[in-house]
Amino acid sequence: MNNQPHIEVPTTRREFLAKSGGGFGAMALASLMGQSASAAPADPRSPKTTHFPAKAKNVIFLFMEGGPSHIDLFDPKPLLNELAGQKLPESFGKVILAMGENNAPLMRCPRKWKQHGESGLWVSDWFPEIATCADDLCVIRSCISDGINHSSGVCQMNTGHVIGGRPSLGAWATYGLGTENQDMPAFVVLTDGKGQPVNGSRNWGSGFMPAAYQGVQFKSGADPILNLNPPSHITPNRQKSKLDFLSQLDREHAAQREDFSELEARIKSYELAFRMQSAAPDIVDLSSESEETKQLYGIDQKETNVFGNNCLLARRLVENGVRFVQLYSGAGSGWDAHSNIEGNHGRLCKEVDKPIAGLLKDLKRRGLWDETLVIWGGEFGRTPMSEQGNGRDHNPTGFSMWMAGGAVPGGRTIGATDELGLKAVENPMHVHDLHATVMRVLGVDHTKLIYRHKGRPERIDMNEGKAELKVLGLG
Question: 186: domain CATH number?
Answer without folding.
Answer: 3.40.720
